[in-house]
Amino acid sequence: MTARPVAAGLAIDNLSVVYDEFTAVDNVSIRVEPGQSFGIVGESGSGKSTILRAVCGLAPRTAGAVSLVAPPGDRTGALPAPGSREFRRRVQMVFQDPYGSLHPRQTIDRTLAEPLAIHRMGDAETRIERALDEVGLGKGFRFRYPHQLSGGQRQRVAIARALILEPQILLLDEPTSALDASVQAEVLNLLEEMRRRHGLTFVLVSHDLAVVTHMCERLMVMQRGRRVEELSADDLALSRVSDPYTQRLMVASRGFRRGGPEAA
Amino acid sequence: MSAVNAPSPGGWREWLMSDRPQSRRQAALGRAYGGWRTFSRNRLAMLGLAIVIALLLVALFANQLAPYSPYIGDLRTTRLLPPSAAHWFGTDDQGRDILSRIIHGSRITLFVVVLVAILAAPIGLVVGTVAGYSGGLIDAALMRITDIFLAFPRLILALAFVAALGPGIENAVIAIAITSWPPYARIARAETLTIRQADYIAAVQLMGASPWRIVLRHIMPLCVSSVIVRVTLDMAGIILTAAGLGFLGLGAQPPTPEWGAMIANGRLYVLDQWWVAAAPGAAIFLVSLAFNLLGDGLRDALDPKGVK
């Protein structure tokens, strides 16, 4: 664990994803600096999850390019191309639904051993134990099946599975929206701690503005597969938004108030 | 869990049902034990299992259990004798003891059933999971081949194969295996189609697992249980098809004591000497019923949604 490569960023240039006739993502570009945490916000069906899936090869890229960004001053050589084994090791994803993202017939041990076997990383025993330790699950959980765990514990396993390959970029697809409020905070704190400890770059997709302002330094608002605007978390906190759609999204995120939005 | 108030003298039950297994072996054994508990609550399934185990033991100790030779009878003194203390199920037209022939025939039945299961189930499983996972052209090609096999009635197709390959028990087994894999491929494909959309498959995909690894290690284990259930339920049909081929003279050849061939033999005397056909008929009935009961029990025990 001595020679962990320093953080890498992620650049998405003019990405489009088209399914048959339907354009899920329309010409979107993002640049996430190494070590930064970037949020993508939008309503359901705005194409935000599709961007993540296109980055890691789960959705077809119709046009555009995805590449890693080396930290400034780093001249260690070529960065792996998307789809290569090394790219897959460096970019990992945590899924939205912890009830669907763990194989129901595999113990936690098997689930965590699988990425190590695929990437032929040795020393599986200690890596698995350390990964479980890091996400706050003790030895007692190692040989359990997913159905013996709670939602929050499952999401911790999913995070451990993503981190066990020592990635540089973690794609988070609504990592807390399937969890109840108290567990949400625990998982978000865990993610934040992992980011600090491992110098990770985050791309977080969420429909929850509060989560994104809490976790991310910069964010992009999306609607119907298009970029609406890009702003910093401070802008959002101080309501310095220009686009009417973002303003509406902000009002909606404050929730229902008696007397209408004017009273807020 | 209930392990706390269960009165257990040894600690092994708690060890098996533990919520926090300490090793791979303990987790696997605990899971098997949970399945066994579900299975053993089903009385009829236990009866089926008992009959199947009895069949296994009879086949294993046929030489010790059979009171007479299954091949040699005395045509002068013991021809077509009714059931008696000396010959429990009577004797046939060659003077052979029917009980001994049924005991030895259990080996052939078991041979057919096991061989068909070993040949047909993996073929169906591989074809179905590969078709379901890869989709597109491979899926279309594999499923059309499956459809072609499904379009023929099983016994007719088996008859054609045996006619081409020549009569005999081995060829009957091959013919039955060739005709019985398509339903397993269909089941495996249907299950694969639902599984491959799951996030846990996407998770191993994005890690860079090869398609073969995903099919073999992640999809197949989830399809195996439903295929096992289906194979067990099909055992009765396989036994009947083998017996049917034997009855038609295309399966086991005389003097092999195959149950279907024995019924065919007794057909000539069915009105006056009913026991010649009745005893092997009852044996086929009993074993087919046992496999059906076993399959029902396994379906409940292996259901992934019903895991306790």
UniProtKB/TrEMBL annotation, chain A:
Lineage: Bacteria, Pseudomonadati, Pseudomonadota, Alphaproteobacteria, Hyphomicrobiales
One Pfam family, short name: ABC_tran
An annotated GO cellular component: plasma membrane
InterPro entries: AAA+_ATPase, ABC_transp_ATP-bind, ABC_transporter-like_ATP-bd, ABC_transporter-like_CS, P-loop_NTPase
GO molecular function: ATP binding; ATP hydrolysis activity
Enzyme class: translocase
Keyword terms of this UniProt record: ATP-binding, Cell inner membrane, Cell membrane, Membrane, Nucleotide-binding, Translocase, Transport
Similarity field: Belongs to the ABC transporter superfamily. Glutathione importer (TC 3.A.1.5.11) family.
Quaternary state and interactors: The complex is composed of two ATP-binding proteins (GsiA), two transmembrane proteins (GsiC and GsiD) and a solute-binding protein (GsiB).
Reactions catalysed: glutathione(out) + ATP + H2O = glutathione(in) + ADP + phosphate + H(+)
Ranges in a coiled coil: none
Protein name: Glutathione import ATP-binding protein GsiA
Subcellular location: Cell inner membrane; Membrane
GO biological process: transmembrane transport
Keyword Membrane included in the entry's annotation: yes
EC number of the protein: 7.4.2.10
Sequence ranges assigned to domain ABC transporter in this UniProt record: 10-249
Keyword Cell inner membrane: yes
Domain of life (superkingdom): Bacteria
Topological category with respect to the lipid bilayer: Peripheral membrane protein
Role according to the record: Part of the ABC transporter complex GsiABCD involved in glutathione import. Responsible for energy coupling to the transport system.
UniProtKB/TrEMBL annotation, chain B:
Pfam families assigned to the protein according to its UniProt record, in alphabetical order: BPD_transp_1, OppC_N
ABC transmembrane type-1 domain residues: 106-295
Signal peptide as annotated in the record: none
Keyword Cell wall biogenesis/degradation: no
Main localization category: membrane
Keyword NAD among record annotations: no
This protein's GO CC annotations: plasma membrane
Name used for this protein in its record: Cytochrome c550
Organism: Alsobacter metallidurans
